[in-house]
Write a structure and sequence with these properties.
Blueprint (H helix, E strand, L loop, with lengths): L4 H17 L1 H11 L8 E4 L3 E9 L2 E8 L6 H17 L8 E6 L4 E6 L4 E2 H6 L1 H6 L2 H20 L5 E2 L8 E3 L6 E3 L6 E2 L19 H6 L4 H17 L35 H17 L10 H8 L15 H6 L1
Antiparallel strand pairs: 1-2, 2-3, 3-5, 4-5, 6-8, 7-10, 8-9
Helix pairs in contact: 1-2, 6-8, 6-9, 6-10, 8-9
Amino acid sequence: MKIKNHDREALAQNLFSLWCFDREVVHEKVVVATEGFNDKYLIGMGGQGSVYKAELLAGQFFAVKKLHPDSDRDFSNFKAFSREIQALTEIKHRNIVKLFGFYSNSRLFYLVYEFLEGGSLEKNLKNDNQAAALDWNRRLNIVRGVASGLFHMHHGLSCPIIHRDISSKNILLDSEYQEAHIIDFGIAKFLKLDASSMTSFIGTFGYAAPEIALTMQANEKCDVYSFGVLTLEILMGKHPGEFICPMTEIPTSYDFTPFKYILDQRLPPPSNLVVKEVMLIAKIALACLNENPRCRPTIEQVSSELTRPSPYSVNQFDNITLRQLMRV
């Protein structure tokens, strides 16, 4: 028997209330539910920690992210732990993962999030069967969801937050593969509060804006660039790779390649009702990949464009090449 959404929210709220009053009780539940963080409950691993699936309430699962205990990383992990809590305490949005609580002592620190059954976008796109389940409408919803979450972070808070690591591994999906949720705020930056310079590369190679490697500085336009890479990955079914390196020197052979042939071939071609929106989103993605950050749109402009009808007619689809699309 499935738990309805409002019941899920009520159960989660009960956990949150319990956490506020007695963290040790919830900590005991986490340890029992994961059998002391046994690997059989492990559902994911990252650079900062391991994620476990834990049934903390009857029929209600949560994701528990336990940060790595490596003593050499204690300071950086604690900083990531603090940033994650600070960011997710500020952000309340349907396309941002919900944080229900956290725990720390001298030997251990972890965070408890909502559990999203669809898993990461990265894993779904790499699996042929799961990728096929991500039809065009679902993929367009994912793009809209990520844009909506970023818009709220950049423009909907008193202190704007930039994520700095938007990538397919940091997007989780619900059980219906309809709703995207941005995760992993361990290197997020509060623009008005954190004016410090970076001294090392931040983000994920292949998604990070080119100026980060040159200046080690990041602003909201870096998130916009990563969004452009992610959007093309969603349309193509794989990371766009050399297609965007650099955008100003696309191989000549692309001049004669109809745009539809770079779309994910594991799906049937978009229907006439979807074609125009696919083309619009591709155009937006390419605009986000401009090497000059000042020439990229803001995520506010992106969100605005996503609500407008495409300027192309369906009959033009076969005739638009990648180079023509870039010039728009």
